[in-house]
Amino acid sequence: MNIYNDYIKEIEERKLQGLHPKPIDGAELLSEIIWQIKDTHNANREDSLNFFIYNTLPGTTSAATVKSRFLKEIILGEAVVEEITPTFAFELLSHMKGGSSIEVLLDLALGQDLSIAKQAAEVLKTQVFLYEADTDRLKQAYKEGNSLAAEILESYAKAEFFTKLPEVPEEIKVVTFIAGIGDISTDLLSPGNQAHSRSDRELHGQCMITPQAQSEIRGLQAQHPDKSVMLVAEKGTMGVGSSRMSGVNNVALWTGKQASPFIPFVNIAPIVAGTNGISPIFLTTVDVTGGIGLDLKNWVKKLDANGEVVRDENNDPVLEEAYSVETGTVLTINTKTKKLYNGDQELMDISKAFTPQKMEFIKAGGSYAIVFGKKIQTFAAKTLDIEAPLVFAPSKEISNEGQGLTAVEKIFNRNAVGIAPGKVLHAGSDVRVEVNIVGSQDTTGLMTAQELESMAATVISPIVDGAYQSGCHTASVWDKKAQANIPKLMKFMNDFGLITARDPKGVYHSMTDVIHKVLNDITIDEWAIIIGGDSHTRMSKGVAFGADSGTVALALATGEASMPIPESVKVTFKGAMASYMDFRDVVHATQSQMLQEFGGENVFQGRIIEVHLGTLTADQAFTFTDWTAEMKAKASICISEDDTLIESLEIAKGRIQIMIDKGMDNEKQVLQGLINKADKRITEIKTYEKPALAPDANAKYFAEVVVDLDLIAEPMIADPDVNNKDVSKRYTHDTIRPLSFYGGDKKVDLGFIGSCMVHKGDLKILAQMLKNVEEEYGKVEFKAPLVVAPPTYNIVDELKLEGDWEVLQRYSGFEFDDNAPKGAARTEYENMLYLERPGCNLCMGNQEKASKGDTVMATSTRLFQGRVVEDTEGKKGESLLSSTPVVVLSTILGRTPTIEEYKVAVKGISLTKFVPSSKLLTVL
Predict the structure, then answer these.
(1) CA 888, CA 882: separation in Å to the nearest integer?
(2) Dist. CA 609–CA 631, nearest whole Å
(3) Is the model's pLDDT at 243 over the cut of 90?
(4) How many CB atoms lie under 10 A from the CB of residue 130?
(5) What is the mean pLDDT of the segment spanning 655-676?
């Protein structure tokens, strides 16, 4: 009884937080609950029945296995529970959606009792989460002449699991709720500092937006019980920053509908909207839950009498309201006409939200069911040796004769599944593709594990070249939350077949390397497709897509993803970098020059940025591709020269070998396989068999941007512009300012060098600047704290070999110790150098933060409100983003430097340089 009593005690503790009992996922507790159900005189029997029926997680959890087997006993008459009839037991099995429930249903359907077998077959016809072991059993039974097996296969071939579902309602009534003005970061919907609770959906739901907002949503629901609440980003984009399945889960928890009456706190069908649409990776997450994402376009550029755009004093377009969506506005979404209405007034066309594919997701309650359903239909038709009837919307295939291919079009064509041989697809086509590399990170990994359990997956797809589970987002503090969650996560992922940062057996030293840095190393083919559980999955080899935890789970389980081929924007360069500039300034200038060229319109949003950085190795080029997440791009592709790509692959091989030497490879020798593939790719390039990926000369782009390096005269800073009178202009990444804007007197309270936007060269710049300062002034004195978090351990090791780490140690007041990691987050900082554990640190904001109200100068990518630094009542916290030398000098001075001070400080230092490809220069 101890484990049950512990559960009851936990329930009482959760009541104090206003929470319901935590869903059960463990076999031991559920076994005890079943024992109490069987004991008809047990005092806990009624509660135990409720826990068993309504509060047990499905899929491949150990509790689901116990539940499935007990339901089988009831169906076979081996156990009698008055409240659970055999018919009800079948209903419960139908809601468990895979894993042991499918095993039980197959046992019954292929069993000797015909009456039971027929009932089981009817339930099986509704299920789609079947894996090879399940389909093999069906196939074998069919070959042996089992008529029910044939009947099930015929149903699958007709896709009756989909066709018999209720149709999407023609009209969906919504009532609006303005969640915020301007871009809404997913951090508002699921704060990073609450990452530890994401797998506890009800608890995590309490952190969405604010308690006041939650109360207002409940008020709207009470006032409009027949309508769905639609969350709106007014004058901005919804869901920027990251995919955050937890963000969509929270929105669904508050505004969606319950997926099943027998599965607690799993809601689907949220409706979200933005004046400037939905961030691409966030929209993918909405699709996972069968939700709807609308691009409202309710604010438009104001035009003068001549049809010219009216601009304000900052030369930004003046916007005027086309129609109101203020909180409480009742609107109608018509899924047939694909229009948005206010009463009888048509507001706009919303057909992009209701493509045939998206309509299928909505009907099926999410994209997973469609992906698995298509696979099941294909399997059944092949087994029956028939042509599968056309049930699902055909893939959209766009092929423009005589038109060349962009880089992303080439990659998608190579990895496409189910396309007729010789068929060439262009942007706009909707296609299934094989995924080569998959990454899971630690604050979303627990949710990915849950998703894998819910879709009954037990092992990684054999077609995935390699997959990695990181420990970077919880690297800063090894607190009780991390100690409870991370080992469990690492064991699950290790057992599933991923290379894991922490070895569950304790054989190798734990790594906390930033996930996208590791993925950048283990991507050994620039033709690869990468899916990663972080918005900054933006590799400088291949094309990488940041994704929600569910899409990561789907890629791990199936080795596939489905998506449209995005349009591309080509970015090239001309001119030369000034000697005192750093490549980070080129990155910022790209965004600034693009916005200026296109009148404030972000042509990168939702598209691929094909950046021609041929002369930069993967480490350095990553600084650009990483930032494209903040440019709101769908993804990015780096076009490299042959020699540079070979150099990058050799670096990658060396780092993969380090992982092997540490003992991180698994039984299938995945890491060694990556080295072998890298060797093959290098040979292909050297022998001219297959040169580095490049677009065709006659490829078609949405737009082309030529960045003029000659125009970059001083360091560039991305400013959150926290005091802009237009709220919608705050906390975007579009306000790029030159250093001189700050006049050399803006106070800086803390500096941060680290996370994914820096490479080894940045840490060498830091070391050299400290030596220069000491040489000039006799000592190094910080007037503001400087926090340094290298992205990977191999960078630390390489710096030690080259002597730079010793320099950093000499000037530091704190150095991380893996044998005694911090047990609590730092709340105060001294004016000194902190050498923190490799990982995300301040950029993530879920553990370490700057002091409230600080002005932070950082190499990070995150400037969202409350992410790196929170506000005080009297002062807004702000995170300004800049290059490493600017951050270093700002902490030494305690303020922003003047351009003259900056030039002196970097004199003689080898900054990250970039020279445009000579091939492109001859064209330009």
Answers:
(1) 10
(2) 9
(3) no
(4) 22
(5) 95
Whole-number Å distance between alpha carbons of 635 and 627 = 10
Instruction: Say if residue 183 is in the same domain as residue 288.
Output: yes
DSSP string for residues in 832-858: SEEEPPSS-GGGT-SS--PPTT-EEEE
Sequence-distant (≥ 6) Cβ neighbours of residue 67 within 8 angstroms: 30, 52, 56, 58, 92, 96
Closest CA to 787 of 902, 899, 884, 862: 884
Q: Among residues 127, 161, 194, which one ends one of the domains?
A: 127
**Residue 453 has which token pair?**
């359990």
**Two tokens, residue 64:** 């689901």
Query: H or E element: which one contains 138?
Result: helix 132-143
Tell whether 116 and 241 lie within a shared domain.
no
Q: 775-778: long-range contacts (C-beta < 8 A, 24 or more apart)?
A: none
Q: Token pair of 381, please?
A: 């038709």
Q: Which domain holds residue 195?
A: 171-364
Q: H/E element holding 496?
A: helix 480-496
Length of the chain in residues, anyone?
924
Q: What is the mean pLDDT of the chain?
A: 93
Residue-wise pLDDT for 437-466, tens only, equals 999 999 889 889 988 988 888 999 999 999
Domain boundary among 345, 364, 383: 364
Pairwise CA distance, residues 107 & 466, whole Å: 34
What distance in Å separates the CA atoms of residue 476 and residue 468, rounded to the nearest whole number?
A: 19
Which residue in 127, 130, 57, 55 sits closest to 90, CA to CA? 127
Query: What DSSP assignment string belongs to 860-896?
Result: SS---TTTSS---SS---EEEE--HHHHHHHHHHTBP
Q: What is the pTM of this model?
A: 0.85
